[in-house]
Amino acid sequence: MHRFFDKLFANSARLFWSQDSKLSYLIIASIALLFFMLGSAELWTQEGRWAAICSEMILRKDYLHPYLFGHAYYDKPLFSYWLVLAFAYVFGHLNEWALRLPSALSGLLTIICCYLLGKRILTRQTGLLSAWMLLTSYYFVFWSRVSSADMLNVAGIMVAVTWYFYHREDSRIRSYTVFFCILAVSSLFKGPVATVLACLAILPELLHNKSWRQHVNFKLLISLIPAILIYLAPFILSNLTSGQHYSESGLYEVFRENVVRYVHPFDQIKPFYIYFYYLPIYMLPWGILLIPAIIYYIRHWRQLDTAERWCAWASLLTFLFLMGSGSRRSYYILPVVPFATLMTACWLSKGFNTIRSKRAWISFILLATFIGLFALFCILKPIAYADHGLKPFAKQVKAAAQQQAPWATWRVITIDAQNKTSFYLQNGQRVVDVNLQQLPPTLAKLQQQQIPSLVISQRRDAQRLQQLLPDYQLIAEPEWFGTQKSKDAIALLPVMKISRTP
């Protein structure tokens, strides 16, 4: 039996990640894991912010000035929102699919780039193995199925680095222009950190044999012009059309979020060493092999070829730059994951063709992890969210509200509610975000205007809101497994019937 499974998994390696394997298998598996049931799970934390900002852009018909519940909120460049809005236009409305598709496509693009990069500088086999390892890394899949700018940032970095290695001997102006335009667009997703990390990744190759000399020329300077214009265009348009109504400057927020936060952090201040365990965690299950790979690289550094050394240098330099920031979050380490995965795959592929047991173990981990991740993200999560969470809560609130007035006429008032709650209760009206002291006068004003209104908050505030609004009925988010979470959503609707508008 042992020999049977050993032979089975060793043969699967030949099928999926040998020199003769088909790339189509990798692409099909990536599409299945990253896209299947993508819109089934409820929005998760920061996704609510993206949903709220994009919703307000649609309501205001203003795509140059991001707002969060009526307040200027330009902490990210505009391109990540524009991609979501483009998919919302295709689908006809803003939904979970539109919010998450940019990240899922970025994940797919990163996997393809990882393969192409490994194939270009190492071997096709190593490129395939690294791409499969990336696809079966839990947190890579997790963030590829979450609406945020972080996977867009990773994809932009990988596209820029891959383009460089495929055109590093090309000193024509066209090649330079495309490279810098890739960096410009990538920097419009999360910030200039994409440009910095991409340049750090290619720096060791540029310094090797002083190859940078061939690229110091006048054509390089000329090719910077269109890239600079592409980067500045959204900020200039936003500034020219802001008038007196918008209080934030996009370029200043970029400076604040990327430079000030790096040097003088104002939040997320954590110890510098946290990335030493965040990186292996973000590479799981392959993170357990990262330390042996690093030890191998250190011990055999003199015997490594240039490409193998580049994998180590790219991982190290990007890691050190992120570690040097004073503001640290776990997912900030995502850009290092593809480079570290490529380095680990390079180490694993040593003796790959001659040691059958090694191929069998790698195959077993890859296949078992893929099946487990597919079951978790594409089967179990959709089942769990089918009858729980904010979707059934929103359905119940809408049904209760429509007994009194058409849903489109209601005004939703939020008090310390999660951003995603307003997404599920959107009705074409702007959400009113207030604090507890502002609630009574806001309700009184809407009642004078005969506008039906309901209040959304969290379960922990239920008691004091019921005391403040004794004539309102309470609807609570359905409990999960019999537990009551303090942040679960609640809605308070007036008990008195409101006459329907003709």
Keywords:
7 strands, single chain, 5-stranded mixed sheet, disordered C terminus, globular, mainly alpha
Can you characterise this structure?
The protein is mainly alpha-helical. It has two domains: 2-381, no CATH class; 390-494. The chain is 60% helix and 5% strand. The chain has 21 helices and seven strands. The chain has helices spanning 2-17, 23-35, 46-60, 79-91, 96-121, 124-135, 138-144, 150-166, 173-187, 193-207, 218-240, 250-263, 274-282, 290-299, 306-323, 336-348, 356-384, 390-402, 419-424, 439-448, 462-468, and strands at residues 67-68, 71-72, 411-414, 432-433, 453-458, 472-476, 489-494. The strands form two sheets. It has a five-stranded mixed beta sheet, with helices on both faces. It has a two-stranded antiparallel sheet with strand order 1-2. Helix 6 (124-135) crosses helix 16 (336-348). The longest helix has 29 residues, at 356-384. Mean pLDDT is 88; it is low at 498-502.
